[in-house]
Amino acid sequence: MANPGEFKHHVVQLDGHIDLPPLRFPHTFEKHLSTSPSELSSRIASATIAIATTTSFTKASFTHAPSLQLISCLGAGCDKFDLHAAKEAGVTVTNTPAQNTSTVAEHALSLYFAVKRKIVELDVFTKEGEKWSKQGMSVMEFRGVMPRVCEEETVGIIGYGALGKRVEKMCKALDMNVLIAERKGSSTTRPGRTSFEQVLRTSTTLFLTCPLDPSTHNMLSHHELTLLSPTSILINVGRGGIVNELALATALKEGKLGGAGTDVFEHEPATKENCPLLAGDVPNLVCTPHLAWFSDRTVVGTKECVRDTIEAFVRGEPANIVVDGRRGQ
């Protein structure tokens, strides 16, 4: 229990369905399942610590939070936060790394198999209840493109952090050939890497497992997608905005890409109004609503990691730092 007059942090969880374990320092706490831009300023007005993952912090946001010291991100990616503005405002930003790596990698492979084996279309075909008996074998659902088996795949991975490495391990276990892409535009190629454009030209399936930052925004657009084989598959479990969505929708509609699966979108929640991929006429596309992270292991690990990260900051021993906003740092 805090002594009279003892400083108490005001902790505000701005979004997320995760219930954190009790923080072991004097504080007050409030939780919101989501926070809109119009609600943000009032909710952080007296906050010293904010917990968020999908709530956007712009430069203007920090002017409404004079007491804010820390933003603790519930995930690994902090692309919703203006990190330069946080630094200028003296706000430290931390993340929650490596808690969902296995889960997201499994989801990436799930999307791959769903696209390749037409799982969604064949589920609809079967449950319709009439087509099977009328048409016999439903190979027509593959539209003349016979799927490859895993041993025939050359997988390209763009983004070779913990997630990319996990996807690599799983693909190799399935006897796929794996190429790790060098950074786009790099003049040199590191040992064990393949040039960015060569990966695009060679891959039969491409996994995007990189974060979103200025160097990866629209990294794959119309030109890059033309380098892929018209029978290749693109899977994005990195971040929305890495692939130009209009370019991807166009490539799929024009038959210049075999299929795609994505769990992430440039604007979330994605709607038909803000996402060309959801227009209704985009074929060979499997989408999920940014839930690749969800598993029991992820939730338990995230709870513990966020609590430990916040408590370390309060002790003056910050961990998992993305931006160190402490003066003099």
What does this 3D model show about the protein?
- The chain is α/β, with parallel strands linked by helices and 329 residues long.
- It folds into two domains: 116 residues, 3-Layer(aba) Sandwich (Rossmann fold), CATH 3.40.50; 187 residues, Rossmann fold (3-Layer(aba) Sandwich).
- The chain contains eleven helices and twelve strands.
- Helix 9 links the parallel strand 8 and strand 9.
- Helix 4 crosses helix 7.
- The longest helix is centred in the C-terminal third of the chain and has 19 residues.
- The chain starts with 8 loop residues before the first strand and ends in a 6-residue tail after the last strand.
- The mean pLDDT is 95.
Tell me the CATH architecture of the largest domain.
3-Layer(aba) Sandwich
The helix tally amounts to 11
Structural class: alpha/beta
- What is the 3D form? elongated
Describe this protein with a few key phrases:
329 residues, alpha/beta, Rossmann fold, six-stranded parallel beta sheet, 15% strand, elongated
List the SSEs and their pairings.
Layout (H helix, E strand, L loop, with lengths): L8 E5 L13 E5 L5 H7 L5 E4 L6 H5 L6 E4 L9 H6 L3 E3 L6 H16 L2 H10 L2 H5 L18 E5 L3 H12 L3 E4 L15 H7 L2 E4 L13 H6 L5 E4 L8 H9 L5 E4 L22 E3 L8 H19 L6 E3 L6
Parallel strand pairs: 1-2, 1-3, 3-4, 4-5, 6-7, 6-8, 8-9, 9-10, 10-11
Antiparallel strand pairs: 5-12
Short description:
InterPro entries: D-iso_2-hydroxyacid_DH_PdxB (IPR050418), D-isomer_2_OHA_DH_cat_dom (IPR006139), D-isomer_DH_NAD-bd (IPR006140), NAD(P)-bd_dom_sf (IPR036291). With 329 residues, this protein is α/β, with parallel strands linked by helices.
